[in-house]
């Protein structure tokens, strides 16, 4: 593989010295970019875009052509794993992802099996290998998966949910059944991330989007413990380099110390957390990633600049910080405001790494 020309992102995740604070953006390849919308139209659908090696490569690289970002992230979806389990993923116009065959009874749950990643998800690993070649060492490539609990939410609810009534009812009424789903999901996610790493991903992120919806104690039992198993089962060194693991629980600020103890290299933060307080709580155990409010990107460039300066000052001097949004970028975000964000991070952050 080609040597990395910019490894600032990887060094920051490992709390090593850097010249500036690196950044990438969750959903950086997406609908806010007109070139992405044009490619998706050519693909015919979101799933066809994900399953085309060439087009997934194209859209992964699009934001890097516009902005001097410090990492690329594989273009895919967290629900590829349950789709490979036979649940029948589809996207309803204006309604988001849905499953044709959600887990609505005990028989369906008992029949759930770990998919063969090498065949059922080969299109994802093919895309990873293709993107690595296309990047040619420009920046590192991030692979990712949903967390076992977040995947279970979609698999049991049949799609998105405002209250997670079905999955939570199962959790309280039949905890062993939910644990069965989570066990299968954890094994599948471990295989899936290891396959991405083998194909060329240089860091991975676990998206625990809905873990923050759980009660104290339930989070540790039904989400965090399974992410800990995944982290323990991942390939952590390739080509003489450590492969860092980022865990992002949206709404997980209450549990930073617990997350820091599971063996990950970095914790992703949403915008509700104060970076200085988060840094004080985790110490030198993990790096931190975040946590600009995505909706602040609708403000004028001067306001964006001021918010960047505030967040960098909150974190303070030294390494161990990757700048990012506190969740995915909004589809209506003006691309020129993203340019202002990237420029401000690179300009302001150098003073903290002298």
Automatic annotation (TrEMBL):
It comes from the Bacteria. PROSITE patterns: UROD_1, UROD_2. GO terms for molecular function: uroporphyrinogen decarboxylase activity. The keyword Lyase applies. GO terms for cellular component: cytosol. SUPFAM superfamilies: UROD/MetE-like. GO terms for biological process: protoporphyrinogen IX biosynthetic process from glutamate. The record marks 77 as: Transition state stabilizer. Substrate binds at residues 27-31, 77, 154, 209, 327. Its EC number is 4.1.1.37. Pathway: Porphyrin-containing compound metabolism; protoporphyrin-IX biosynthesis; coproporphyrinogen-III from 5-aminolevulinate: step 4/4. It is found in: Cytoplasm. Keywords: Cytoplasm, Decarboxylase, Lyase, Porphyrin biosynthesis. It is an enzyme of class 4 (lyase). It holds the Pfam family URO-D. InterPro entries: UROD/MetE-like_sf, Uroporphyrinogen_deCO2ase_HemE, Uroporphyrinogen_deCOase. The keyword Cytoplasm applies. Residues 22-31, 142-158 form the Uroporphyrinogen decarboxylase (URO-D) domain. It catalyses: uroporphyrinogen III + 4 H(+) = coproporphyrinogen III + 4 CO2. Its main location: cytoplasm. Catalyzes the decarboxylation of four acetate groups of uroporphyrinogen-III to yield coproporphyrinogen-III. Belongs to the uroporphyrinogen decarboxylase family. PANTHER family: METHYLTETRAHYDROFOLATE:HOMOCYSTEINE METHYLTRANSFERASE RELATED, UROPORPHYRINOGEN DECARBOXYLASE. Homodimer. This is Uroporphyrinogen decarboxylase. It comes from Chitiniphilus eburneus. The gene is hemE.
């Amino acid at each position: 593989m080609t040597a990395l020309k910019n490894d600032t992102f990887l060094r920051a995740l490992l709390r090593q010295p850097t010249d500036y604070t690196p950044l990438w953006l969750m959903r950086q390849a997406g609908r806010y970019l007109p070139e992405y919308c044009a490619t998706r139209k050519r693909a015919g659908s979101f799933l066809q875009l994900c399953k085309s090696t060439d087009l997934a490569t194209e859209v992964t690289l699009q934001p890097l052509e516009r902005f001097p970002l410090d990492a690329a992230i594989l273009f895919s979806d967290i629900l590829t794993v349950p789709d490979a389990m036979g649940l029948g993923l589809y996207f309803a116009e204006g309604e988001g992802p849905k499953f044709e065959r959600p887990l609505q009874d005990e028989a369906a749950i008992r029949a759930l099996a770990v998919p063969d990643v090498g065949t059922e998800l080969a299109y994802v690993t093919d895309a990873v290998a293709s993107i690595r070649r296309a990047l040619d060492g420009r920046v590192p490539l991030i692979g990712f998966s949903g967390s076992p609990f977040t995947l279970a939410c979609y698999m049991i609810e049949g799609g998105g949910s405002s209250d997670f009534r079905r999955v939570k009812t199962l959790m309280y009424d039949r905890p062993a059944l939910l644990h069965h789903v989570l066990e299968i999901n954890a094994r599948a996610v471990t295989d899936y991330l290891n396959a991405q790493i083998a194909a060329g991903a240089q860091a991975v992120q676990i998206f625990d989007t809905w873990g923050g919806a759980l009660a104290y104690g339930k989070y540790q039992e039904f989400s965090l413990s399974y992410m800990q198993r995944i982290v323990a089962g991942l390939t952590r060194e390739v080509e003489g380099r450590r492969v860092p693991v980022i865990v992002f629980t949206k709404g997980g600020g209450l549990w930073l110390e617990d997350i820091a103890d599971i063996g990950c290299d970095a914790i992703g933060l949403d915008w509700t957390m104060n970076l200085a307080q988060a840094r004080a709580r985790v110490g030198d155990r993990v790096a931190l990633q975040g946590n600009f409010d995505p909706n602040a990107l609708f403000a004028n460039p001067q306001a964006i600049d001021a918010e960047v300066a505030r967040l960098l000052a909150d974190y303070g001097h030294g390494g161990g910080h990757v700048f990012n949004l506190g969740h995915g970028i909004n589809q209506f975000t003006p691309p020129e405001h993203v340019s202002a964000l990237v420029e401000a991070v690179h300009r302001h952050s150098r003073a903290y790494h002298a």
